[in-house]
Amino acid sequence: MSKVLCLGELLIDFVPTENGVQLKDVPQFKKAAGGAPANVSAAIAKLGGNSSMIGKVGADPFGEFLIETLTDNGVSVDYLLSTTEAKTALAFVSLQKNGERDFMFYREPSADMLLEKEDLKPEWFEEALIYHFGSVSLIEGPVKEATVQGIELAKQSQTIISFDPNIRLPLWKVPELAKKEIMKQIPHVHILKISEEELLFLTNHPNEKEASHSLFKGSVKLILVTKGEKGCTYYTHETSGNVEGIPVQPLDTTGAGDAFVGGLLFQLSQQMTKLEDLDELIVNRELLSDILRFANVCGAITTTKRGAIAALPTKTEVLSLK
Predict the structure, then answer these.
(1) What H or E segment, with its residue span, contains residue 192?
(2) Would 124 be classed as within a structural domain?
(3) Please, which of 27, 37, 172, 294 could form a disulfide with 8 given CB 3.0 to 4.6 Å?
(4) What is the total count of domains within the chain?
(5) d(CA 80, CA 244)
(6) What order of strands is seen across the sheet that includes strand 232-235?
(7) Domain with 69 in it: what CATH number?
C-alpha cells in the first residue's frame, strides 16, 4: 500500500450546532479537528489507505486533541511536531441554511505556521508515492519555505505532487498575493484540484475549458474542477470529461473538498506505485471516471454530517452509494 504525505495546517474548527445563524449570533459551538491537509490525511486513512501528516501543533490541549484524532483515524503522526512557541490554530465557523460556511481564524502566529524546512527529511519522500499540500501553508514563513522544500524533495524522489489551493482569502494580506503565490507553484505539481470559483479567481477567464488549459504549465498532468453537488470535470492535455455528483441533503460542507481529495489520493495510492503510472492511468478514461466517482461520493457523504474529520466516510459507506 503506497504512502501519501500531507503537509500543512492542523487546527480546531468550532462548528455551530445550528445552521442559518450569523457568526456573531451563534449560541453554541462544537469542537472539531480540522485543517485541509489534516482532513485529507484522515480521509485517506479512514478509507483504509496509508497516510502521514507533516506539520506542527501547539504543545497544548488542542494540539494533543489533534494528534489523538489523527491517530484514532489511522493517520501516522510520526512526522507531526509540537512546539511551545505558539498555540494551535482555531477557526470559528458559521453555517448557512445550505451548509455553506463563513470563517474567522485565530492564527497570528499559530503553531502550524512554525514548521521549518529543516524539519523535513528526504527519506520521508523517498518512501512515499504522493506529496499533497495546499495554499494556506504558502502564506508566510517559515512554513512557506517548508512547503516549497517539500516540493523540491518530492521532485528529487520522483514523488507525485498534488495541490489543492483551497483558497482562504481572509488569511492573505491582499488577494493578488494569494494569486501570485499559488500560480508560482502550479507548474511544479502533477495533479491540481480546484473549485470553479478558484479557477475563475486565478485565471480571470469565464470559459472553464480555456481557463483550465491555461494552467497546463510545467509538470501539470491532471486538473480537476470540483462543482459541489454537480460533481467534477477532469482535464488532461488530450481529453476531458464530466463525472456527476451524488444527490444528498447537505448539513455542513466543511471538509467536503478535502474528502474528495482524500478519496482521489486513496484510489491513486491503490492503483499506482510510481510517478510514471500516472500517465497510464489518466489516459484510461473509464478508470479515471470510476476513481472520480468514488471521490465525489466521499465528498457528498461528508456534507451530511457536521465537522470535517468526524464526517469522513469509510470505504464501506462509499461503496454502498457508488
Answers:
(1) strand 191-195
(2) yes
(3) 37
(4) 1
(5) 36
(6) 80-83, 50-58, 3-7, 128-134, 160-164, 191-195, 222-226, 232-235, 240-243
(7) 3.40.1190.20
